[in-house]
Amino acid sequence: MFTRQIGIDLGTANTLIYVRGKGIVLREPSVVAVNTRTDQASSVGKEAKEIIGRTPGSMIAVHPLKDGVIADFDIAATMLQELIRKALKGTLFSRARVLICIPSGVTAVERRAVKEAAEKAGARPVQLVLEPIAAALGAGLKIMEPAGTMIVDIGGGTSEVAVISMGGIVASRSVRTAGDAFDMAIVNYVRRKYNLLIGERTAEAVKIGIGSAFPETTVSTMELRGRNLLNGLPENITVNSEEVREALSEPLGKVLEAIRETLADTPPELSADILEQGITLAGGSALLRGMDKLINRETGMPVYVAEYPLDCVAEGTGRIMENLGQYEELLAEEIRYYV
Question: Which CATH number fits domain 139-177+248-309: 3.30.420.40, 3.30.300.20, 3.30.930.10, 3.20.20.140?
Fold first, then answer.
């Protein structure tokens, strides 16, 4: 009676919560600020992200998820508890029945860690569903039909590539190269070329501001501030979009390789369907300029970016909960396998 049904997109970079009957009610960075003197979390989400790189010695910003899986169990449970509390604030519902998405390439131990962290946060019961399934549903793909659909979900920690038919995954790859790896590639490039150390937030701003996956007609520039590694002094430099694209070429190559391998594993009949319907991109990194053009050039397939790529996984969990009768068989299969 006092249970609310919620779906959670537990991402490396951001966590989204979908409440049945309300839609997506919460979007927060997956960051927790921890006081090292007391080992207690002092803030979660947006407040914690704002202090990254600006903390005193007694305070650290922790990312409890790395590469799409839980790296710090206790901090992850604390974060989930606080985010669920925020999502249900102002309601009479004290408990939450939770559906959480997990990457398709996680191990049994990693699956169990996600489930137990949610249970520690107070969720009962906890059910799991594969990210590509949820992303495809959220993107509006007809995954229950006997036809091949292809989803490429490029998030913060992992890139999920899957061909789906009749509610099941036919071929897939899960690579731990995505938005965070793009940021680190920019950090390493600037350090290597300019002997300048920049932070994660600066690298992310560069990626969003002038980053691209495909050559553009105009070259954009952006000023960076960081610390010179030779003399230790603050310094300003200017980088251009061509340099950023060069920096991103290696991690982008790994994502393209995962797409090619998945297509190579796809049965011919389903390959024909994908050639007709195209590849759908989801996840925050799908918004990188020219990502669709790059994948189109490398595969020869039509490529489309989902209307709301950041919301696809969370919307997919909501679609499952709102239409349990329609997706009951799909969900039961996933739960038997994962729980």
Answer: 3.30.420.40
Summarize pLDDT for 36-95 with one digit per residue, the tens.
888 788 888 888 888 776 767 778 888 899 888 888 888 999 899 888 888 888 665 567
Residues of the chain within CATH 3.90.640.10 domain(s) are 179-247
What per-residue string of b and e applies to 273-301 under the rule 16 or more CB within 10 Å gives b? bbbebbbbbbbbbbbbbbbbebbbebbeb
| Nearest to 292, CA basis, from 128, 152, 135 | 152
Measured distance CA(109)–CA(97) in Å, rounded: 22
- Number of helical (H) and strand (E) elements in the chain, helices listed first: 11, 18
Pairing label, strands 32-35, 23-29: unpaired
CA 242 vs CA 11, 39, 330: distances in Å: 29, 43, 44
What is the distance, to the nearest Å, from the Cα of residue 226 to the centroid of all Cα atoms in its chain?
27
Q: Is the pTM of this model over 0.85?
A: yes
User: Which fold would CATH assign to domain 3-134+312-338?
Assistant: Nucleotidyltransferase; domain 5 (3.30.420)
Nearest CA among 298, 220, 221 for reference residue 252: 298
Handedness of CA 109, 110, 116, 117 (dihedral sign): positive
Fold of 179-247: Actin; Chain A, domain 4 (3.90.640)
